[in-house]
Amino acid sequence: MENSQELTALLILPLLGSLLAWAVPKASQRLYALFISAIHFALAIFIASHASLGHGAGLEQNLPWLSDLGVQLQLRMDSVSVWFILLSAFISFVVLGLKGTWYRRNTQLFTSLSFFLIFALNTAFLSTNLIVFYLAYEAVFIPMILMVGIWGSNAKAASVFRFFLMSFFGSILMLVSIFYLSYLHFVKTGSFSTNLSDLVVLTTDPNISLSWCFLGFFLAFAIKVPMFPFHGWLKEVYVNAPTPATIWMSSILSKLGIFGFIRFISPLFMSSLIEFQGVLLALAAFSVIYAAFLAIQAKNPKALLAYSSISHLGFVMLGVFSLSEAGKASAIILSVSHGLTSAVLFYLLELVEERQEGISLDRYSGLAKSYPLLFTCLFIGVLASLSLPGTFNFVGEFLVLLHAYPVSALCTILSGLGVIFGSVYMLKFYQRLGFGTAEVEVVKDIAGFDLVVVVLILSMVVYFGFQPAIFMGGMN
Amino acid sequence: MFDSLSVLGPWIFLGLGILLTMLVSSIRIETKIPAKMVTLATLALVMISSAHLFSQDTKTVVNGLLEVSPLTSMVLFFMSGISFLFVVGSSGYLNKEKLHFSDYYNLVLLLVLGASVLVSAKDLFVMFLSLELMSLPAYALVGFRRNDSRSNEAALKYFILGGALGAVFLLGTSFIFGASGSTQLGQIFEWSKGYNGELLLFVVGHLLILFAFLFKVAAAPFHFWKPDVYEGAPVSVTGLMATVITSAAFVVLVRLFNLVDFHSSGFTQYLDSLKQLIRIVAVMSLIGGSTILILQKNLKRMLAYSSINHTGYLLLGLLGTLGHPEQIYSIWFYLAGYSVITCGLFLMLSQSETANDQGLELVDLTGIMKRNPFFAVVSSIFFFSMSGMPFTVGFFTKYTVFMSSISAGEVTLVILAAICTVVAAYGYLRPIALMVMRDPDPTAANFVGTRANQTVIVLLALLCLFLGVFPQALIQMTKGLELIP
Q: What pTM, to 2 d.p., does this model score?
């Protein structure tokens, strides 16, 4: 581990961006947001390239904060967090380019909240102190709730409440578990600590049972991902949220849960994970199938994508619960690929809905003829989402299934069926939107910034589909 | 002689201020500006003189009846600071409600004097006297809106209950005197050290005085007076009650809990049953406060139930300190943080433009974000802080309390408290959702504050956020405050 001062830059830059947004005139907010997020992405790449120099060792930084309470600002960028940081920086750049009501109404608030969200996400992905992680994990809610509340549609209040309460319920139990761990550390060593590196000591003690703490952590992350049966909040929020918030939630926030499983649960509660592995694998496999069925029946295209997200995340969880290092590494790969594909699909759906209001999957909208370029992009996105060989998702799902098979053949085969259902609903999605002979008032096809971004993501998805080697570092 | 004068400094200033405001109001009751100035100067002097005493050693003065310690000076500093902010921030409200008379300030100073003597009291009789000294101006302030029947009802209710509690407290004192032969806290503590005999008389007396103060801090099931009084009293008075009176009463409650030496063998069994009692009261306050909180339609009633819920957390912290005196800072920290939030929130409510606080229903907040973004943003900070969201002081207050009670082994109770936090969070999210997510209702009340009021509120909101990121300094300060038996 190399001690480095750079990691704080990843926290300071978005925080500054959030504050300075209020000084920028409304008309140039989008430019400002794009500019800062581009710098942020470049900074993330720069630091990440440093981090991998030490051959998987990564960077570390310790800052004193709240030492009275046993809390330290301990940041670490290693082969796990680096992918999540990069993904989040890239997706944030993409999201901030998307035009919509949020750049017309309360614009400064939107930009400010966005950068605060990026700050919280970076803190969560970097911190190895449980309390700091918890703080960041909770702080993510604030901009999310406000975004859904201010720029969302229809029944937003009810969906926000459900989202907030379910997530808060999970995370407050996690907080209690953290306190308990800290207390156990106090009993064992005489000092309170919430650093992951200190708490790992507890797991070696056979006299300490941590199953209840495991449950607290598990609930928090399972709700966040979400996994069946904790997915109740997801559909309404995804549908009602403004598209930037939806993209953030499906691409990044869900990964926060997965990251939590890999970063915190597996080192701290390995014995509990082994104990409950069967149940967890079954839940993951069931998530895949169940969400796929929900997606097939969905009427609202956004709801369909939301359910497809749960289904794909079920695969990721399958990889995590295989509990092997290779399984976790493939879960990370699938996380990244899902982050990219779901972002591009929601992005394109927003472009489609901008052009044609009130789309329902009950009927054929026949938009492909009018917007050939947009629907070509959407088609590639759909193919990537149903894991066509040659796309990034395929690599991820294949690896996950490969590593899960030796652990539980049954769950793997069941999840494998999910791939087939995946093609059913994704093709239905494309067919209902694109095909048919409805009369459409043609506006403008996809162009400009949107086209560049979409093509960029799609080419990444295809490129990594053929060249996944860069992500395989953790597999060896 | 001069040494003890400097120790008594804050009280002397308060007494002079009270006399001066009385003088001013006897000349003409409408002369409010000089009275206000005198009050502000008095409170500022009290703050300065009590800040001088922070670093001094603990002393007992007036024949051992009063204690001057870092704890009492800090609490006094804090109470006078909060009252200062209330006086600065609420004159616009008083003008609007046509309550702006010089007596108001006289009563506020009396209340602060009573509260500060109460915190310092080392003798049960002094405690009783100062309790009355604090409560009498409070009754008058609650009923200050003379022509409003709800205000009168609240004052009467508060007065009758308060009188009865005073009697209960005195009865308890006499029992304790009978058992231990003294009313001085120090001597009772000494008595308990070697005592190994019959406890019934003492236990009855102890429980009676505890009940009196559990009523005062409105722990469930002794809470029923609070929503009515909160609703009836003028907003600025409700705010004072929620901060100054609650803090003083809780400090005394902590003192009374530690009345005897629980390390002495004769009291171990009693300690267990006492813990059980607090557990029950804490659970009832937590569950009752949070569930009834989310059903409220009136903002002041909602804040009353919120304060009952917060009492539950405080009792949880108290449970953590029994036998672990080093954890006691969590209570002081909680009181300080809670007072900052509550002060800000009540000053926000005092901006309502309707008369007699009619417009303080939750629905009146609908769509405020579009009409008055300042109000929406700042009160969201306070509501978030109430619910314990990170980056506000409310998070760390809960943090320290949970931490201290987990250290005392109260894991189940903390889990329950955590669930209650989620329930209460729903209640605090409701006003935020109404403010931010709905379109404004043109007939709803508007909220407009004076310049002074807004300045104070912004200061408090910033303090709330600052302590949410850097609580270190305040925690360090509160860690130095020991409770000396």
A: 0.87
